[in-house]
Amino acid sequence: MPTVSAAQGRTTSSGAAQKRRAGRPSAAVLDKAGITAAALELVRRKGYEGLTMAALARLLDVAPSALYNHVASKQDVLLLVEDHLMSLVDVSGFGGGTWEDAVRTWAWSYRDVFAEHTPLIPVIAVLPVTDAPQTLAMYETVSKGFSDAGFPQERIVPAIVALESFIFGSAYDVTAPEDIFDSGSMAASTPHFTAAVRSSAEGQDVPAGQERGRPADTAFRLGLEALIAGFGTTRA
Amino acid sequence: MPTVSAAQGRTTSSGAAQKRRAGRPSAAVLDKAGITAAALELVRRKGYEGLTMAALARLLDVAPSALYNHVASKQDVLLLVEDHLMSLVDVSGFGGGTWEDAVRTWAWSYRDVFAEHTPLIPVIAVLPVTDAPQTLAMYETVSKGFSDAGFPQERIVPAIVALESFIFGSAYDVTAPEDIFDSGSMAASTPHFTAAVRSSAEGQDVPAGQERGRPADTAFRLGLEALIAGFGTTRA
DNA sequence: CAACTAAATGAACGTCATTCATTTAGTGAC
DNA sequence: GTCACTAAATGAATGACGTTCATTTAGTTG
Hints:
The structure is a homodimer of 236-residue chains.
Chain A: H1 32-46, H2 53-59, H3 74-86, H4 99-115, H5 121-124, H6 133-148, H7 153-175, H8 191-202, H9 215-234
Chain B binds a DNA duplex (30 and 30 nucleotides) through loops.
């Protein structure tokens, strides 16, 4: 019998609204905020393979089944984590400066966040925003930014969705092995592709420092700038 | 004891090259082509949740462990399926006509194929092309198309990667629920976003028939045309 | 104190992918 | 024909894992 000590970085968000009819024990060991924090900690330490209900329970000093009093399923835990990550996406650019720069800041940070959490991409891409307050907050800010920039109302959502799709796909790229395009023994039968791969690997001249110089970064920059330019003509 | 009868749509690709030193039994019940075909059949009938090693073995009238004589893991089976799907992507446009139209044909069919196989996206995005002949063949055709269209050699791969990223992300969109952007009770606190969502839902005037008229299609078209336009300026 | 309830427990389940020692059955060499 | 060799199939076992459920624990209200 483990003594209840733990108390992981729990945020104790037991704000106000909560009046049930009968007994409301205050010594709850678990809550959603605590589960979210523990899940994030677990992912940081062991990656997503390490994120199991058993490991989560162990970190919280609790039996695995206890989690199900606060969360309906493991999918539910993923949603908590995912929504939290959305608050890490930088939308500050939409407060001032040009629309182009705001989109750049937003898109790069969005990609960077999910490049480190690719297992969440299949989850988020299908997630109704209703269940995700932080996600909704991000959309509001971005929508306002697009609107202020003169985007026609009916194009705002499609444009954001297109950008997001590009961002999610690009997040996977970041995690791809460096030699992903090594054609190996088939090189002889794919001359154009092999030449293109070699040539793209050579042109690795990074502006300054060696930041954003990985192949995935080059492709992301190219696509992002194309999208920004392409959208630029459809607004105003 | 099940009598060995089965013989599912196996392609018996035991071509030529294969000279080992000793006994080479010909009555092999299993081979990679057969496993691939069975896996595809299973996915078609039951989806990816239904694709288990046990189900695969049952369909092939074999014990589950027998599969491991031909395949190293379930991941390996997914790779076989994925590479097969690549042959369904339409690259015929690169044979003639404009570069723009070729890219359109390719991108739409690419997205459509993987919209029905989203569980493969995390697999393919990280898959070295070495192990995937069909994938490599597609890259060769597309690379040549870009090269012929006047693309600078070192930009070909990044451009293809950017397009693919957009395509993969967009494939997820297709499977998203229709009400994914329903802000629900939070609508009041997200006025710009809510208005944009409503407005995009109204502008659902589809050119002819009701083809390609889903929200996911609108976003995909918008992004794809922006990418094509954006890339158009960097070549030539 | 008694009624009520949220929450934690621990023992089950069922499903999976995967491993391994063993058996089966073709094939080429002598 | 038979012997050695080997690819391939078997069936039992293993170890995660997510999830369920009857039961217990402990705090709050009236």
